[in-house]
Amino acid sequence: MKPINVGLLGIGTVGGGTWTVLTRNQEEITRRAGRPIRITAVADRNLELARTLTDGQVKLTDDAFSLVKDPDIDIIIELIGGYTTARELVLQAIENGKHVVTANKALLAVHGNEIFAAAQKKGVMVAFEAAVAGGIPIIKALREGLSANRIQWIAGIINGTTNFILSEMRDKGLSFNAVLNEAQKLGYAEADPTFDIEGIDAAHKATLMASIAFGIPIQFDKAHIEGISKLDAVDIKYAEQLGYRIKLLGIAKRQEKGVELRVHPTLIPEKRLIANVEGAMNAVLVWGDAVGATLYYGKGAGAEPTASAVIADLVDVTRLHTADPQHRVPHLAFQPGQMSDLPILPMSAVETAYYLRLRALDKPGVLADVTRILADLNISIDAMMQKEPEEGEDRTDVVILTHVARECDVDAAITKIEALDSITGKVTRIRMEELKG
Question: Whole-model pTM?
Fold first, then answer.
């Protein structure tokens, strides 16, 4: 049977892994796909690297646009990243009737609605399994495996860099900056780690999962995003003493009036499986009404794990290459005309439990003032821990765990607590999730 011809844009880490795995497992992949899948052309700025990796077996160019115009190419793999040139290439490939496979979560989180609409109009597929959680097939699970379910919520550790940093801070008691430096030396963190440590990368992925889970348009600009750069090692220690672990979670929850879409450090009970995901590993917990909780775990990055997802998409597209476009799996799981207008809720409307740490004067009546403020705002206390003051100190740390409360009420309470003469500095607030369905 006639092979499917593929043009590869970018042969860096993931592109190189894709070439390697596709070459190594060619026979197995052909048996699965029903016809050979061949990378026939590669575009990369570094032609010398491309020549070394491909051993001169394919057409090489530094002009990516020539590949999206090539009539002999059926599928474009976009692995160059970024929002601008990648968008132009993907839209031009679609306009030229080519299917697209991409690992570019940033591109889809920002321009996905436009890209999927263009693909729908032209009758081509845009596959993006590799854009979320590396080698974990979470997009296929949400889009197909759980299609019988009304999905209620998703909570994911979907950035390996931040999970590595938090694991090391907990294990070694080191500061954030010390562990970040270690992560950069080990190659887990980029020279500019902003997208990872400030939660932007996780928010890109959470946005895509929320759209597939709830059938809503992609709305990255509505996501609440907090990273881990301001997290104090003392809070990781106190959380553990209280039976919790702190993880950076991407959370999407369906509520009656809308969808919560948020990324932030989160306390999780240590007995939950997802709380014990360590190092650079990823995990996504999904709760559906029929199946209950399901957990997806594995490597969220790396050459071959991500290549695994890229090639799975290639196989899917090859199988459906000649299928009626109306009978393919929709890009965002729901039929384009059946998308919901359920809004993304503002953070002030979110309801969850909270960890609050305050530096308080060690004298009678202080905690009474704090608890009165909380009670006045309908915030009930689940647990409290007061540390002994260090020798010569008249102030100490007080940690309060609340029951579920509304974010706007907690904001108001924090403002009032910080205004007390007996409280020094800012109140540390970390949200908590039980994740028990």
Answer: 0.96
